[in-house]
Known about the structure:
Blueprint: E1 4-9, H1 13-26, E2 30-36, H2 39-49, E3 53-57, E4 59-60, E5 63-64, H3 65-70, E6 78-83, H4 89-94, E7 99-102, H5 107-132, E8 139-143, E9 148-152, E10 156-162, E11 165-170, E12 175-178, H6 182-188, E13 194-198, E14 201-204, E15 208-212, E16 218-221, E17 225-228, H7 234-244
Parallel strand pairs: 1-2, 1-3, 3-6, 6-7
Antiparallel strand pairs: 4-5, 8-9, 10-11, 10-14, 11-12, 13-14, 15-16, 16-17
Amino acid sequence: MNKINAIIIDDKKVNIEILQQLLGQFCPSVQILDTATDIENGYIAINRHQPDLVFLDIELNGNTGFDLLKMFPNVFFKTVFTTAYSQYAIEAFRAQAIDYLLKPITIGHLQEAVTKAENFIQQQRQLRQAYTAPIVQTKVSLPTLEGFLFIDYNDILRCEASGSYSNFHLADGRKIMVSMRLKECEALLPDTVFYRVHHSHVINMNHVTKYIKGRVGQVVLTGNIIVEVAASRKDKFLQSIRKVW
């Protein structure tokens, strides 16, 4: 997985150095961005670096790690508490800590804590990516006498000109007449999927099942629907259909 950005907060520099060494040697996925020895500088470091994970001592020069957490309206990082005192364990897990490591920290327990953090942070990243991923729009809005009809363009077999109107022929057999010229309908549809094979026909390339050679040429669509391909458009159409197939 990607690196976990972390900060160490401990009131003893020697403890910070030991933890840095252990992480560097046995937990290479963790990247230490900064360290602090009190809650004031810890607060500044967290806001500056926006870490994924904080290794947080509990007793900090008259304050506690819990005091630091209370300084954040929304705790956006995960916490692994590090302490020499076991009596804070319940309070630590109430603070939704990933883990609670007693000093002196053993390699095995440290690796277990980092693995828990990796799994949780990876899940959060995936959820954020899913939430922020662009929504693929597959519907088109067709003006009808009653208002607007929203159709998934994957369900459209073809669009056929009918004077100043156009007919949308759907895969389920429906025909929808709209007060738009074929050129306007063509502009609504993605050109990576739809192709104008004739002055009066735009077809959905994903519904083409066969091409029949001839002076004019014909395409067969889903449901055995046959549409002529204009001679002037045949060469470009064949180039396009080869890309699809």
